[in-house]
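Issue: ligand-bound run for flavin mononucleotide - logging full I/O for the record.

Environment: standard queue, default settings, no custom constraints.

Inputs:
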Amino acid sequence: MPPERAHHFALSCLRFVLFLPGGKWLIKNLYTVRSAPVEFFGLMFPNPVGLAAGFDKDGRYLDLLPYLGFGFIELGTVTPIAQPGNPKPRLFRLAKDEALINRMGFNNEGVDALVERLKRNKIPIIVGGNIGKNKFTPNDQAVKDYLICFNKLFDHVDYFVVNVSSPNTPGLRALQEKEPLTKILIALQVANNLKPEAKPILLKIAPDLNKEQLQDIVEIIKNTKLAGIVATNTTISRENLSTDSLTINEIGPGGLSGKPLTDASNQVINYLYSSTKGEVPIIGVGGIHNVPSGISKIKAGAVLIQIYSGFIYQGPSFVKRLVKAISN
Ligand SMILES: Cc1cc2nc3c(=O)[nH]c(=O)nc-3n(C[C@H](O)[C@H](O)[C@H](O)COP(=O)(O)O)c2cc1C
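Outputs:
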């Protein structure tokens, strides 16, 4: 089955079991484990293991995901207006590498559809809203798109993530540069501070930034008083792969995630942790493919972790194993 269809098929099967008599009890017992809550950015997370953005962009699985053991889920990336994303196929498995390459291109039903689903579902875990810009919005007007998504989602999520690091929206990563990024983050913080109670805003960054760019990011985060950093998104690198280069070339462009990303992502986390002296909380994501790699994120300086590709390869029981290992 093509990976994108398999994704929705597997989740629909789990949801089918969930709504059988005793299904909720069964799934909860299989996949969740008690653990001590942890507090970051003023939010109480039932456990430190989250679902990374992109997995449930539109909130289609809000009824199911809380039963799979996550302490938090990050929805999106959503954009102001629905958009189809790139032509299919756009998601590829590299089984030998326990990796994925995707060029989804922010396919999503738009922020309003997500808000409607959030209104209909009461979610017992922490929910993040990952926000982006529409493909056809020029970069110099991107701030408007981020503000639309922020304002519409405000009453329905617990924290926000500003995504300027996807490699699949042309020009998006240029928004990681000092000037445009500062402009977007200041505008969001101004809007945030106009609310009766501000919400944590985090920035999600690419693993492909050099030290100078990372240092700029640290400065911007401090200047704009962001709550934290999500590190990292997928990489455009194709290094350290076991899959043959012909296959890789045939797949073409996209972001690489999963096992080959572990070290690059950990290096970014470690750099950010050192240069912020641990004062800015980091959500570590990228290449968590087994329990030791999950623990390595915490050792590199992350306070919370998220998974995506590892969840695909290891299955839902992976969450419970990570929670047990990290919480003990
Ligand atoms: C199919 C796919 C879609 C993704 N979509 C998004 C997205 O919309 N927004 C985002 O911030 N990250 C997105 N990501 C990146 C993940 O959230 C995560 O940062 C990345 O995959 C690294 O984690 P992993 O190695 O555990 O997969 C996507 C990843 C994949 C594989």
